[in-house]
Design goal:
Distance between the termini of chain A: 67 Å
Oligomer: homodimer
Order of helices and strands of chain A: HHHHHHHHHHH
CATH class of the largest domain in chain A: Mainly Alpha
Helix content of chain A: over 70%
Radius of gyration of chain A: 22 Å
Chain lengths: 228, 228
DNA sequence: GTCTATAACGCGATAGAC
DNA sequence: GTCTATCGCGTTATAGAC
């Protein structure tokens, strides 16, 4: 086909209508997904400023300009990554509400968070970075909104357990901080842990052992017998 | 005094000798100290790439060129900050060895680390940043060296306690990770904690409560009765 | 919707006067 | 040892051909 005679996109759009529209939306979904996944890794590894759109584009397998086509600015892309992380953690939070029994609820919650720390550490790292720097992009308002989702119901539930003598009296916040800190440590400090483990990532077996240990210490620490 | 007739530094140096030399060394010490302190805060707040030498200079109260005079490159300055953090944590590690009794040793260790998290959060944040990004500046070798200092003796001691039935059998590494994670969380996630605390930093009283809770849960978690 | 080429800018680092 | 002015590079973002 001679140059200049390639069918114009507008023609095809008019000719084939809905099919092309769907295809476009589909392509958009595929690419934005790929870009976000690539961005999550690069932001985790380099920080917001340290990450370059070029590297993100390379990892996503497309030219830099296309990244800017789907996400106007680096900051908008960064926000999309953060939103994605929040979605994952929301699911962990749900695990907490699966049972009225403290042993079950806490065990499931910690298991969930440990699982995500091992399988998707980058998201946690991006979040940690954002918080360490004082939530400059997320902003305090949005941050407060997210935190309340994770904290409010749990705090109430924990107080109820204390009231009914099911667990020892501890301030719910400090217990939650300990769970968040310990579980997310396996994602955020992955590198440090692997260096201490002879430069090897924790094996599946070690991951299970770590999860058991964490559950065991925390549950016993508040007066429960752990099931694992 | 007319321009061009200001006394040359070399003259004064020859005339007054040692006094000037001392003064110079003194000035150097004062400025390098100020620069490192300023750098620690800016690196903590913005990350390595995000921090600008201009902002560090501003905080230290001198022109940007002077920062480069004392620290040839940004990376050299960053390394100096990291070394400083390690010195502080080395002291915390010593607290662990103050007693052969697990309750005392662990209580003192956690207290020390919590204290530094509250009083000097920036150092911990810089460290966290460096590890999250895979220790690109520190390098694995240096990192391994530091970690061994903090971990080796503690691991041995913990195993001894387990052997003598003083604490429940837990993998020493997972216990140490929990202590590091939980205590450093109060530094690294300071901002998140303050947002959950109604946008106010934890009060002295809350800091004490947090410390008590952390010690209580961890010690009870490994089968000890906490003293606090 | 894709991609190359480039504009516009901020930053680390330094030269060179004082 | 101090400081201003500036160089040179790397980066985000965009213009404009296809």
């Amino acid at each position: 086909m001679l140059p200049g005679f390639a069918p114009r996109l507008s023609h095809r759009f008019i000719l084939e209508g809905k099919t092309i529209t769907n295809k476009k939306a589909e392509i958009r979904e595929i690419y934005t997904g790929r870009i976000i996944a690539a961005a999550e890794e690069v932001f985790a590894l380099k920080g917001f400023k340290g990450a370059t759109t070029q590297e993100i584009a390379d990892r996503a397998g497309l030219p830099k300009a296309n990244v800017h086509y789907y996400f106007k600015t680096k900051e908008i892309l960064y926000n999309a990554v953060l939103e994605d992380v929040v979605v994952v953690w929301k699911k962990d939070a749900d695990a907490f509400d699966q049972s009225k029994d403290p042993t079950v609820a806490l065990t499931e919650y910690i298991k969930s968070k440990m699982f995500h720390s091992f399988t998707r550490p980058s998201g946690s790292k991006v979040w940690a970075n954002e918080i360490i720097h004082g939530a400059p992009v997320l902003g305090d308002e949005k941050l407060g909104k997210f935190l309340n989702i994770w904290e409010k119901r749990k705090t109430i539930q924990i107080r109820r357990w204390i009231k009914h003598g099911k667990i020892l009296p501890v301030d719910p916040h400090y217990l939650l901080f300990m769970i968040w800190a310990t579980t997310q440590h396996y994602a955020d400090f992955e590198h440090q842990i692997s260096v201490l483990n002879g430069k090897k990532a924790l094996s599946k077996d070690q991951q299970e052992q770590a999860t058991k240990n964490v559950i065991g210490i925390i549950l016993r620490g508040i007066g429960l017998e752990s099931e694992v």
